[in-house]
Amino acid sequence: MFFKTELPGTKKEDIDIKVEQGRLVISGETKRSEEVKEENYFRVGRQYGRFQRAFPLPEGVEDTGQIKASFKNGILKIVVPLQKAIKEKEKAIEIKVE
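Now predict its structure.
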């Protein structure tokens, strides 16, 4: 399973990823500041805000320690490996005589 989200202007330190109650929870805070200096004017813009997003995980996720996350150029990628269910083969049961 693969998650990809864009978080422009967000730093790695401002992002939290955790698994709780069978859900993958991504939360954090965006702090962005823009400054424009021109000959006739000066403009400063600031944007702040918290965000949180939760995704249900399928039943095949057993080892949350295997979840990997990477963050580059404002793109967060999370890989959640799924355990493949082991299908039992038909097996004859031998009857022993006592």
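The two ends are 51 Å apart (CA to CA).
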